[in-house]
Amino acid sequence: MFDNATLKLKVDPLILGALDEDITSEDVTTNSVMPKKQLGEVDLICKQDGVLCGIQVFQRVFTLIDENTEFEFYAEDGKDIKKGELIGKIRGDIRVLLSGERTALNYLQRMCGVATYTRNVAKLLEGSRTTLLDTRKTTPNNRIFEKYAVRVGGGSNHRYNLSDGVLLKDNHIGAAGSVTAAIKAAKAYAPFVRKIEVEVENMDMVREAVEAGAHIIMLDNMTHDEIKEAMDYIAGRAEVEVSGNVTKENIAALTDLGVDYISSGALTHSSPILDLSLKNLHAI
């Protein structure tokens, strides 16, 4: 759940931008059929099995339009929900319920989808020592929501953004000239409290990263046998992350390797939405 400071400083501007995208001047359809205020109620219904995530954001959409909107929820973030389940009821000015419906559902369906996909992937790592991580492959302006949804689904967050930590990828190494040069430059520039992670693609780069003192070595798009060879060489001298086209279809094959982390961009860039709907709107 987002605290009040995060809501006001980080979340509210994004929601207001989404509402502005959907209502540039007025909701002409709603204003046509509902010219005056009328209290009403509508049901939030789940249309497929999944993990609930984003109730607070869903709620915020309506309260930013009208703070008098009322909510009654029967489930909370992280709960497994089933097709046909009544998740809650929303009461307020019918004009507000109609105008906020699409934006609120867009956030909720997207966040539920990420949490559901993450839960399914995380289950495949149960019993292993490996932590499931997301990446920065998020929808622009939706990172705060999608990374929250990963946590609700049972995953963990990699760095939030470029200011969070040093991750030397192939192009950084190319710019610096070598793995060693990139790590040396990062150690000289970055605050000493920052860990330095380097992405490698073969055993020569693994050896160079270890000798240069990388804290975390990311094995990118390496085969199962290559990862095992790298793990044997690293031998605890650095933490190990595996990355590169990891999905729920292939992650189980990596569980026997004992790596510290597996990161998957698919958690955010390939998770389908969870179908939810606002139904049965009526005046009260």
How would you characterize the overall build of this protein?
It is a single chain. The protein has 284 residues and is an alpha/beta fold. The protein has two domains: 4-121 and 272-283, Aldehyde Oxidoreductase, domain 3, CATH 3.90.1170; 124-269, TIM Barrel (Alpha-Beta Barrel). The protein has ten helices and twelve strands. It has helices spanning 4-22, 28-33, 55-65, 94-123, 143-152, 170-176, 179-189, 203-212, 224-234, 266-269, and strands at 39-46, 50-51, 70-73, 80-81, 86-93, 131-133, 166-168, 196-200, 216-220, 239-243, 261-263, 276-283. It has a six-stranded parallel sheet. Helix 3 (55-65) packs antiparallel against helix 4, helix 4 (94-123) packs across helix 5 (143-152) and helix 6 crosses helix 7 (179-189).
